[in-house]
Amino acid sequence: MTVPDPPHAFSGPGTAVDEDLLERLVIEAQSALPFELSALANRCASALGLDTALIYLVDLQQRLLVPLDEALQPLPVDRSPAGWAYRSVSPRVVGGDGGVIVWMPLVDGAERLGVLAVRAASPDRVRMRRCRMLSHLFAMLVTSKRAYSDWLAARTRTVPMGLPAEMLRAFLPPHTVGSRRCVSTAVLEPAYDVAGDAFDHSVVKNVLHTMILDSMGHDLTAGLSTSVAMAAARNARRGGGDLADVVGSVDQALARWLPDHFCTGVLCRLDAETGVLHWVNCGHPPPLLIRAERVLAGALDRPPQPPIGLAGPLAPAVRRVHETVLEPGDCVLLYTDGVVEARGADGAEFGLDRFTDFVIRSNAAGQHPAEVLRLLIHAVLDYQRDRLRDDVTILLFEWCPPAAGPRPRAAATGEAP
Predict the structure, then answer these.
(1) Cα(55)–Cα(118) distance, rounded to whole angstroms?
(2) Cβ proximity of 43 and 22 under 8 Å
(3) Residue 98: what pLDDT?
């Protein structure tokens, strides 16, 4: 049996905590500017009896871990100790001269932000515990400050961003949200040139709301249509509307403000206590239900409904809300047609079978949902050699009630721990 550390345990010389200094640093953190976080991390590490700490944030495409210290070089997410910690959401200890480097994942809720590199004398229990404390603190600080910091946004970009993508990304939520009962994660490409695709997810008490949209066109107006649709959906949700109200609100908003534009989409509402799933499909590829490592063919197929935003005689009188009950461990996959229509050098499509097989194999290997989609979107990009002909958006949510227990997770792929 593992005995927890007492509140003020010490493992040896140099591990005492200057609590007065630590309190001053935490207070200072509230008003610290984002570019000051690097120096603040070092001072907090010192106050905890550690040596140094460096913050790395993942770039927009989740290929690089970019240091906040502008004098340092990025690290690859694949095949590096730092990347292993990010991919597996687990600490990685690497020996070095005169001590160790502990790579701690930076996670806010369910969202992977990057990693924290902490240099320490040894990886004993007290120091590891303090490394975790430090990573939790700076994950919250990064999340709170990136909402208003252009500098943090710029640090995680590797190429200039197009105006439609800039506008649309201002509306996007974190890539991953969740609770003890459910998790939803999404990816979107091309990261710097997306226009008409978007996703949204939100947890309201024990209810998970998810949405995926594909607006007609690939220009600023397409991004505007998607942005209006997302704003209308959130407005209805936050006003207490049910799923039918949300879809109706989006229909009305697009018909009123952008009457010549429409979008397809799927909107879902999952009761994370009971597993009851409601969804509406508006002219979009049907959601896929994955259970026990296989796709249940046609499980969520229903008669098609018109796209969102049609005005006049084309507008549907009523939206049909469908219902089913998930089983613990079920995953629901939403996607835009750019995923399956991506073409390789030989002209062959990526295809639905290849798409679902990749998700199932990664899930079966125990990968975290966010890592499943990171690997998948890179596989699509590699297949089409990074030249997507259409936007690609994928959203995966999983119902994992506590009674079912968590699925075993793989440490990572590409290297041994």
Answers:
(1) 9
(2) no
(3) 79
